[in-house]
Amino acid sequence: MSAASHAAQLGLNHVLLEKTDHLSDTIYKYQKGKHVMATPSQLVLRSDQEFDAGKREDILERWNSRTSELKVNVKYNAEVKAIRGTGPAIEGSVQKIVSRARDGTTTTTEIQRHAPPYELTLTNGEKVMAETVILAIGTQGNPNLMRCPGADLPHVTYQLDDPYVVVDEHIVVVGTGDAGIENARGLAEDEVQGNVVTVLNRSPKSTNVRESFATAKEPNAKALVDDDAAGRLTIRYETETKAIEPGWITLTTRDGEERIRCDRIIARIGSAPPRAFVEGCGIEFASSDRLAFPTLSPVFESSAPGIFVIGALAGYPLIKHCMNQGYDVVEFINGNIGLKPADEPLLEAKFRDLPGRRSVDEWLEYLRSNISILEGMTTLQMREFMLDSDARFYRKGEVIFEKNDPGSSLFGIASGLVHVRIDPNDSSKVVPIGAGSIFGEVGLISGRRRGATIVAAEDSVCVEISRTAALKLQSQVPTARKAIERISTERQLLQMFGAGLTPDDIREVVDDAKIMQIKAGDTIIKEGDEGKEIFVIRVGSMIVEKQVGGKPVFLSYLPAGSYVGEMALIAGGQRTASVRAAIKSEVIRIDGEKFEKVLETKPALLERARRDMDVRRQTNALIESKKDSLSSVVDLYSEQAKFLVAQGLGEATDVLLIDETLCVGCDNCEKACADSHDGLSRLDREAGKTFANLHVPTSCRHCEHPHCMADCPPNAIHRGPDGEVFINDTCIGCGNCQRNCPYGVIRMDKVPPKKPALLSWLFFGAGPGPGEPSYKWSKKHTKYTGDPSIDEALDRKKAIKCDMCAGIDGGPSCVRACPTGAAIRVAPDEFLTVARLEQESA
């Protein structure tokens, strides 16, 4: 529609072929009353058609009116059956098309591509001749189908036109993309309808909705979660369909099978390009993957000369992008070959500091073709991807990041070579990583500090991929997800076990390894069970417990990057302790027998595993030895450790604790915090929970994957060089971080006005003076002063939270100001250890 509108505006001979009796069938099929988003907001709209966020009906009305006004030549009920070139055969362009039937059989057909003009054959037999063709058919006409017994029953549908005509039904919505979420919310919106709506989500539940609903826009996902919390509908996490029958559906859940009532199933599980039709037009695809997109030039021209592909079929379905592409392609066809896409200035800024003179298109292709995980992306996907990523140039010898630095971004190497320093005391001991590969995946996956120092061994060009962009990449490009998972598994095992291992040594182990999602509280190893599997903690943390006197006693805390399970493999026998997830976690399960073969050929590795096993045995022996003589100390230590995990230490990187046997209630800690932060204290000493003598006040935990970062519109929340999570001055006071924090450590507060210069205060009495906290001063002004700079400051609020006193000499003020040493800041993997039990018992 946008392309045809611009052709009409330019006076070009054109025809818009619509297979139905109306315009914009995709939007037309949206459910009634649906709010249509106009994202991304920063992108300029170039189309001759108007488009702003609004109701489906209003948008369609404006488009219909504008199409008539522009006198667009529209041919309705004109479905295209085939497109073929009628010009000369293109030399060397015989194309093999592989068709795959549902039973798995394949048929290969060869076609010869011909140059334009093109003959378009309609289903009614009519033919249309065109010099150029713009293919903007999307993918919605080729929905992914459910593949389980009963999927062909009549109450299984892939579309919802009007949710308000569905009344008093038990409805299951399969799929948690935008379409599935909007359908589910529409069906559950009006309580009078009486619908019981269940949404099936294969992903585990997470406090970060981006992780639980990776393919949906965040506002949609948050609204769905809110509806679930309010009881308007039910989200079933980690649940899939096993079988369908009239009136019922059988689900596969984490706890087994479950059969529930079901009158209607709405499956919104995505769609795939109509490959047979597109390939029949002479258009090649980027790969054989079912979800691959056509191979396109930077101006969206396909491998068939004169056929352009835009919109969802080109790889990115946002409406504003599609409309801009329609405009741009017509401009190109009309001879404006110099027109740059609307996002060109943003991308030019991204590449400005890289060596060599390349255009944006050249850089995009260079990065895509030289970094293996990006190869499956289309040109359009690359443009969007790079808006969320950064291209960087590192000179030989430059440190990219240091061991123990915070960071969750992933790096792809486009050119050059980097070295991983495996010995901090010997810079010659390195592991090389060459062009095409990735590094930084451990920080991406676990959220922990960097595990090694990375140095540019040559001048190198890398792409730093933000965590958000990396998650999106993995959800949209299956080949990227598989590559990242395999590389990260292999590297984690090599780094963890060392002992001279090479990728070839553990190839079979990696091939058989399974990545498992573990709910908080779920057990991966049970004391007394048989089993030889080893578990590597990829994300989250685990706690190890042992039954002593009929009660579970806390033994140790295992952060991401640890492993467990080797005792039964090396020594044989039953499991000697239980291991369960402190928070939602991810583990790599390694086949014990395959790992045993590696141990047999690597004596140094076996010796390392034996040492680790001996440490665990000593811990078990210590607990056993103290169960009678110091049972109260053991019980106290165990219950205290469980309490701390429940208070968030399982995902913390730095937390403030107060020993109440030493605390005198002087509040020096709070006062010092306020003095260090313009009168705004980040600490509430009295709030929070206490167990025995240990108090956890209301103060930031600086989580591995901070909940507050999940939805910050201005991207104002960051990690500092010492791991602190802080909020910068771009905060707009929206309160999203406060709502997302599960520990209540963020508040919205007024921003105090800046202190005036000393002479202004001395001679004119302006503002607070030396020694007077700005916040006290601002509290005195309960009425507007008439001074805009002051009144605006009194109105504006921002998010306030602990920043670990970043940039202040001496470290956190709260700890330094405590006169009795009651306040301490700790890392959980150092604090939750059996060494504390030994100290307490001594």
From TrEMBL:
Record-linked SMART domains: cNMP
Any Pfam family matching the protein: Fer4_11
Keywords: 4Fe-4S, Electron transport, Iron, Iron-sulfur, Metal-binding, Transport
Span of domain 4Fe-4S ferredoxin-type: 654-686, 723-751, 796-829
Domain Cyclic nucleotide-binding: 373-473, 497-616
InterPro entries: 4Fe4S_Fe-S-bd, 4Fe4S_Fe_S_CS, cNMP-bd_CS, cNMP-bd_dom, cNMP-bd_dom_sf, FAD/NAD-bd_sf, RmlC-like_jellyroll, RnfB_subfamily
Iron-sulfur keyword on record: yes
PANTHER family: DIMETHYLSULFOXIDE REDUCTASE CHAIN B, OXIDOREDUCTASE
Full protein name: Cyclic nucleotide-binding domain-containing protein
Organism: Novosphingobium tardum
